[in-house]
Amino acid sequence: VASLIGSDSLLFDGETEVAYVHYQANNSVLIGSVDSITTILEWSDSNTSPPIANIIMPGDASEIPGALIDGTITFEPIEVPHYIRGDSNEDGTTDLADPIGLLSHLFGSDPAPTCDDAGDANADDTIDVADPVWLLTYLFSGGPAPTAPFPGCGSVGLDDCQVSSAACP
Predict the structure, then answer these.
(1) Do 93 and 65 reside in the same domain of the chain?
(2) Domain final position from 78, 101, 129
(3) How far apart are CA 148 and CA 72, in angstroms?
(4) Range of weakest confidence among 7-21, 65-79, 99-113
(5) Is the Cβ–Cβ distance between 117 and 159 less than 8 Å?
(6) CA distance 136 to 100
(7) pLDDT number for residue 42
(8) Which domain holds residue 131?
(9) 56-63 — which CB contacts under 8 Å span 24+ positions?
(10) Is the pLDDT of residue 51 over 60?
C-alpha cells in the first residue's frame, strides 16, 4: 500500500485502518437455496505484472510474519417473499377487486397493499394511478399483462415485500 518499489513508507502513530473492503454479492444467486455458499479470500502477489509482494513492516523493522491472513466469506440464503404482481388484495387472482382496492388506497382510506410490488402492476417501483389503469386496461381492453411474477407466485430479486403474499405458498 505504501510503497511499490520499497523506497517510500507511511508512518502511523498508533493503530490505523489503512484498508477497507466492501463486498457486494448478487443476491439472486442464493434465491431458492437452503445451503450457504462459502468462498476463500486470500492474499495474492501474482495479480500484477511484474508481481508485487504484499508485506507489512512496522517502521524500520523486518516484515511481520503472519500479518496477512487469508479468510473466508460465507453468504447465507434468506427467504425471499413471493407474490403475484397485480394481485394487490392477495386473493390469488388478478381481477376487478385489485384496481378498485388500489384506487381506494390512493384516493380513499384503504391501507396500502401488504406487498408494494403486488400493487405495482406496471413495475415502475411506485404505486400510483397508473397501476389500477394498467390493470383495468389488461382486464378489459386487451392491454399488456403485469410483468413477472405473473400470473403465478414468484419473486424477481430485490422486491419490496416483507412477507409472502397470503395467496402464495
Answers:
(1) no
(2) 78
(3) 35
(4) 7-21
(5) yes
(6) 9
(7) 79
(8) 80-169
(9) 57/9, 59/11
(10) yes
Please report, as a single letter, which amino acid is at residue 14: G
Model confidence band, residue 135 (pLDDT cutoffs 50, 70, 90)? very high
Question: How much is the pLDDT for 19?
Answer: 61
H helical segments located in the chain: 97-107, 116-119, 130-141
Instruction: Name the packing angle between helices 130-141 and 97-107 (round to 10°).
Output: 160
Q: Quick: pLDDT tens for 56-97.
A: 766 666 666 666 777 888 877 777 788 999 999 999 999 999
Backbone dihedral angles phi then psi of residue 38, each to the nearest 5 degrees: -115, 135
CATH at 104: 1.10.1330.10
Burial of 118 (0-12, 13-18, 19+ CB in 10 A): buried
Q: Tell me if the pTM is above 0.85.
A: no
